[in-house]
Write a structure and sequence with these properties.
mainly alpha; 4 helices
Length: 108
């Protein structure tokens, strides 16, 4: 296993985890303010979808001939996720994805 693959995979998992935490926090507010709960659930779908795309990109780095596409996908989605999202897990996962994508493009 290569370092870019591992970093992209861990980064995607952390971003998905942050989306799941947002969903749980949103479900706790359902009895207080239902509209906030709905918006929190919808907004938390962004990190989950970003994390899934990051994992797909990391898996693409393992396929022969698709390494460059996978690394670019991880790098771009990580940058978007970092700029759109916030919080500890999103930032950590995005930074891991950025480092993994950059290392993969460099050829390490």
């Amino acid at each position: 296993m290569s370092l870019p693959f591992i970093l992209g995979l861990i980064g995607g998992i952390l971003v998905i985890l942050s989306g799941a935490i947002l969903i749980v926090m949103g479900s706790m507010t359902i009895s207080i303010l239902p509209i906030i709960s709905m918006w929190t659930t919808l907004i938390s779908m962004l990190p989950i979808s970003f994390g899934i795309v990051m994992i797909v990109g990391a898996l693409l780095t393992r396929k022969t001939g698709k390494e460059r596409v996978g690394n670019i996908l991880v790098l771009v989605i990580s940058i978007i996720s970092l700029s759109v999202g916030g919080g500890l897990f999103i930032a950590t996962g995005s930074i891991l994805g950025i480092v993994g994508g950059a290392l993969g493009l460099e050829g390490k």
